[in-house]
Each structure stands twice: as C-alpha cells, then as structure tokens.
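Dear support,

We are seeing what looks like truncated structure output for some complexes. This example has four components. We would appreciate it if you could run it in full and send us the complete token output so we can diff it against ours.
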Amino acid sequence: MDSQRTESFSDGVFAVAITVLVFNLLPIADKTAGTAGTVTLTARHLGHFWPSYLAYVVSFMTIGIMWLNHHTLLAQVTRVDRSLLVLNLFLLMGVVAIPFPTALVANHLTGADGSKGQATVAAVVYGLVMIAISVGYASMWLYVAAHQDALGARRRVHTPTLSTFRFTAGNGGYAAGTLVAFVSPVAALIIFGVLAVYYMVEHLPDPSNSDDGTRAGSAGGTDGDQHG
Amino acid sequence: MDSQRTESFSDGVFAVAITVLVFNLLPIADKTAGTAGTVTLTARHLGHFWPSYLAYVVSFMTIGIMWLNHHTLLAQVTRVDRSLLVLNLFLLMGVVAIPFPTALVANHLTGADGSKGQATVAAVVYGLVMIAISVGYASMWLYVAAHQDALGARRRVHTPTLSTFRFTAGNGGYAAGTLVAFVSPVAALIIFGVLAVYYMVEHLPDPSNSDDGTRAGSAGGTDGDQHG
Amino acid sequence: MDSQRTESFSDGVFAVAITVLVFNLLPIADKTAGTAGTVTLTARHLGHFWPSYLAYVVSFMTIGIMWLNHHTLLAQVTRVDRSLLVLNLFLLMGVVAIPFPTALVANHLTGADGSKGQATVAAVVYGLVMIAISVGYASMWLYVAAHQDALGARRRVHTPTLSTFRFTAGNGGYAAGTLVAFVSPVAALIIFGVLAVYYMVEHLPDPSNSDDGTRAGSAGGTDGDQHG
Amino acid sequence: MDSQRTESFSDGVFAVAITVLVFNLLPIADKTAGTAGTVTLTARHLGHFWPSYLAYVVSFMTIGIMWLNHHTLLAQVTRVDRSLLVLNLFLLMGVVAIPFPTALVANHLTGADGSKGQATVAAVVYGLVMIAISVGYASMWLYVAAHQDALGARRRVHTPTLSTFRFTAGNGGYAAGTLVAFVSPVAALIIFGVLAVYYMVEHLPDPSNSDDGTRAGSAGGTDGDQHG
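Here is the complete output from our reference environment:
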C-alpha cells in the first residue's frame, strides 16, 4: 500500500480526534443551565470550569504536535507494509483515546471534596496514555529505520539513534510528569503542556534542513509528494 | 512540509467542527421527549428553541466563511514551515472551540429567570472567541506576507496592508458586536451573522481577479494545484 | 478555487454527518441500562427502539445518495466561484442538520401517550428539512447550468431541464411525504426511504453513458480527474 | 465515477466511525464524578469499567482491519459504478453502526443484577452486526469479481473463490462467536478480538506479493495510484 493513503486516513483520524476535544467543553453549557432553571450564567460561573479549558488547550496542542510528528515519520517512506499499518493502528488507538483522560482531568482536577486524590488518579491516567503513545511512536520509528529499503525510504533515515533518543526524552518527560501528578496534578498537566511546546520548538530546524531541504533541491518543490 | 497536506488536515478539522454544530440541536429531541413520558411534541414546543437554530445558522456560516478564507490564505504559498504550522494549530484551536460558545448562546439566549444577564455573558464569550480567531488569522497573514520567499509564494503577496486592514475591520466588527452584547445579546448574535455575510460578499471579486485569475492564465486550469 | 478542494471539504462534511447518525443509537445503550441498575437488557427491550433503527437506515441512505448526487453535480465543473461556494454552504447546512430531524423521529415516532400528534410534528420537520435540501440542490444545478463557461464545465451541461425536472420530482416526493405525515408518520418515513432508493435506481444508467462514458473515451480512464 | 473519490469518502467515514468509539469512554468521566459531588475517583473505580476498555480495543482493531480490507478491495478497480456504490453504502451503514453494539457491550457486559442474560443479548447483537458487515464485504468482492472489465480492474482478480472462502471463514468465526455469547459473553467478545488479529496476520503476505508487488514492478513505485 502506498504511504499516501495511510497518511490520508491517519490525518482524518487525527482531525476528528482533535475536534472531539470540544465535547469536553459542551457540557459546561448544560451544567450552567442547571436543572431547576434558576441558575444564572455568570463570568465567575464559567471561570469555575478552568480545568476544562486548561485540559482542552494541553490536549489540543499535544494532538496537533503528534500529527506533525506522524507526518514527518510517514514522509520518510513511500510504501507501508502490513506490519507498519498495524503499528500505526495501535498508535492511532492511543491518539483517539486522548479525549478520555482529558475528560477525566477536566472533571476531577478540582476535587469536589477538597482532596487531591481523584485529581491525582486523573492526571496519572493522562500521563499513562501519553507514555503508551510515545512507545507507539518509538516502535514505528524503529520499524521504519530497520526496514528502509522495503518501505522505499525517500532518503537514508540517518538518525534512528537520535530520533529514538528524542522519543525516549519525551517518554522521560511524560514519566516525570506522571510522577509529579502524585504531588501536584495541576503541575503535571502543565508539564504535559510544556512537553507539547518542547516538541514544537525542538523540531523547528528539522523541516528546513532535511525534509523540505531535499525537496528544495529538486525543481518544482511542490510536486515533491506526487512525483518524488 | 508542502502546504497541500496542511490544507488537507485543516480541511478535515473544519469539516468536523462545522458538523459538530448539530450536536447543539440533538438534545432538543431529548428535551422535548421529557422524562415523565407525558410531554407531547408540538410545533410551538420546537419553536421555543429558536436560539439554538439561530446560533446554528450563524456559527455554520461563520465556520464556512473561515474555511474559505483559510483556503485563500494557504493557497498563497506552496510550502509551510514549523512556525506557520504552529500558528495554524492555534487558529484551529479557536475554530474547533466555536461549538462551545454556540452552545452557551443556544442555552442562555432566553434567560429562564427573565433577566438578560446570562444571555450577555454567553454572547460576550461568543464574541471573544471570534476576536481570538480573527487575531489568529491576522497573525498568519502577517507571517505569510513576511516570509513569502521561504514559503514559496505562488505570486507576490502584494496586499498585506489591505488584508491586515480587512481583518482589522473584522476584528472591529466582532469587538463592536461584543460591546452590543451588553445592551442586547440577540442583536450581538445577529451582528455576528451579518459579519459572516459581509465576509462572503466582500471577498466575492477576489478569486476571479487574483487567485483563479492566475490559474486561468495557464493552460488546463484544473491542474493548477498539481503542477503549478 | 478549483472544484476538487470544494469536493474534498464537502466530502468530509458528508462523511461526518453520515457518521453522526449513530449518535441517535448510542443513547439506547444507556436507556436500557436504566438508572436503578435493575433493568435487564432483552431482545424485546431492544426491539422497542425500532423507530431509531428505521430512522437510522432512512437517513443513512438519504445522506449517502445526496453525497453521490453532490459529486455528480461538482464533477460537471472544474472551477467554483464564490457564489457557488456560498450555495454549497447553504446546502451543507441542511445536510449537517439531518441528524436533528432524525433524532426527533427516533424519539417521537411512537408517542408515549398513544396519540400520533408528536409523531406527526417530527415527521413533518423531517420532510421540511428534506425539501429545504432539495431546493438547495436545485439552486446549485441551475447556477451551474447558467454559468457553464465561467465554471469551466467539463462538457456541455445539456440536461438542465431534465435535471431540474428530476429534482422537482424529488421535491414533489418529499412534499407528498410531508403531507402523508399528517395521516401516518410511519408511512411518511417509509416514503422518505423509498425516495432514497428511487434516486439510487433512477440515476443508475447515468454514470455509464455520460459521466464515466466521457472518461472511458479517453485513454487511461483513471486519470480523468487529474489530467482531464 | 473513479474509485479514488469513493475511497476518499469511505476513508473519511471509517476515520470518523473509529474515532466515535471514544464516546463510549467519555461518559466514564461523568459517571465517576457522580451527581452528589461526593464520589472520589480511584484507580479501582476506573477499573470497574473494564468492559468499556475491552470493547474499545476490540472495536478499534476491527474497524481498523475493515478499513485495510476495504482499501484492498477498492484498489482492485479503477472505476466504480452505481451498483458498487450502493453496495458500498450498505457496507458503510454497518461499519458506522459498530459504536452502537460496542456501547451495548460496554454497558451490559457486567450485569448489574448478576445474571448474564443482558450481557448475552449485547454480545449477540455485536456478533450480528459483524456478520452483516461480513456479508456486505462478500457481496462487494463477488460483484467486483463478476464485473472486472466494466470496473477497469488493475489486473485479473484471480482469486474470487479464495477471497470468498476467506470471508466465509470470517463469517464462520463471527457466527461461532455469536453462538459462544450464549454461554459466555466475555469469551465471545474475546473471539471477536481474535478475529481482528487473525485478519491482520492472515493477510500479511498479500500486499507484498500481489498488490504492491505489481507496483514494485513498475518504475517509481510511489506513483502507482496516480499513473498506474
């Protein structure tokens, strides 16, 4: 199977998953409406749901960055085999699940009973899902690096070690965040947000000197994907 | 990364976000069903939910126009870099959130207690989200105008000032609408709807004399995107 | 703007809208679970929700056929202008709304109080949405027929009258169904389903002798869309 | 109609349907929040919902594999006619419905009253939907095999019998699983998961020696879909 269709399907899944995040905000409109019809919506009332907004922003940036990295990964190859497709499915299974820990964090970050026990559970589950996804990415990178010829790699994938290291670093970050959740769930969520920003900044030089750089060398750079 | 994939992913997000708007209508079927099983659905009963229908139409047209403008913006370039991708993510984060203020307006435009306080809060939040999105668009336009060569602009982006002005005008419109919400939330929502229509009409001449005009000049206009 | 991107966005909207229909089935799993935890799920219990299944099938086939016709319509042209895009948005606004009347019918086709009053209201709303969409299609067909050159029509659109007639026939069918709803809401829903089947069968000969026929005439028929 | 657009629309439907599965997990965040605000989220509390996680994994893998097989099927042809489109719609109607039996299983696998009656009903419905989808696939394969020339088959579809056999085997598996549901609903669900893995492994050699093998024979394998 050519990699373009896999990317296209994956892009669709990412696009839906990232949009599903808004479903954690929609119930706020209902909750503030109340059941007795006597609740009045105020700015302070809306502010009460700050964990939902924070979780929305962190998860949105996280899925967005994951989409970028997913594209970078599949852009390495021109074909995908069944094994890579199955690894990809496992990865997507984690990405699609993200709105669930996001909902847990949104609903439980401020414990109704004043204890931080349930906030910790929510943030830990969030971290575990992130770690699972990181493992998924690392598996795909390692597989691609090990089967470059069979997958028709566009150019030598010359940095498997570095990539692995980076993803390990990401794993380390998520593991650290998960541990922090036992002390401060809010701090853990902020760490997860910072990791998304880290992945954004960290990879900034990549596209220009490797991915797009290759294409810029050929005439009519735009057609890279079609006729490369 | 070539701009086509970014457009494709963004298109997916727009398509899902615009469809999510119907989830503000679905609960009506449940609410009119009642819990005691004794409520009978009548035309008047359905009419009671007019704020939901109005909010649906206004938000649908708004997201639709935003999709058009997003396409016009990305059609200027052939490549995107990481910075533009990040700006794009922030923009999409605002677009995906639109169903939330839409739900607030749908549920609170007719205050259960007769006061217009909560309707004002709902309409103001709606306006603030629109302003945030307008700022996102202006940022992307300014970035594209400032990095034309690096992004492989299809032609000289010769109207950054005018474009900026237009988006400022849009910002001004949303700011005015947000202020009006303090006096009349319904009027504010109608202003937001009028702004969508304004963006439709205002840009009507554009595609023919700049975007498509360029392509019409080449043979086999359809292939513009593939072989331009 | 080239018509391919518009099709792509519209396809996304159709794909999401058709999938949203399952959200009218999901609550059944909750309703049969009960709140007291004592309700046991039985086959008869599931059968109780037959209006939901019927509405799902009818709306699914309807949106599916609408997607086919939408593709046939846009396949006529190679470019779209702003006016056509706006007409398209209005059409999609109707298509995306379909899950709403579907939910009304699913919840109200079997009146809890034994009267058929609310079932009539639900079926009438369903019919009105269908009529609005039919009008949207007719508008787009008429616009395309009137602006063939500006839109870069692939071949002479030689059957505007016939097309209009067909859509009028469709309108007539939906209008008749809506009227029948006052007598028998169930019969109305079945008529709407039959109309979907009618559109399927009726257009069966078309693709082979006009649309694909043209392409079959050229070498390498597959490439039609890319290099036509 | 060229097969690429049908694939693209179908891909969109698959992508949304697979993502909708997360909506069976989202309510867990609400249920663990409780209504009285006194419920504390604990790891054990989350573990209580294991049928939801199991159903999510099984259905995700199932839809994922179905997407793969759907692609393999449509990759055989370069054109689709109305009949194939209608068969495809029926198939998608089954795929989109999958989140519904998934929700039934998630909610009813552990009977609140200790009996396994409702779990059996849920698992049986799950199996019946799978059987219906398998029949849909078999119909499409048989149709494609019988109309190879009209559909512009890429190469001789030389294994209709074998394919039919495989799908029959799949049907047999789902039928067996459905029967097992009367004894042990959990075992049935596990069988459905094993079937997904079976379809993964079983088809592993296919892409390399038939589908991609053909393309590998041509120069510039990537372009297969565009210029094949």
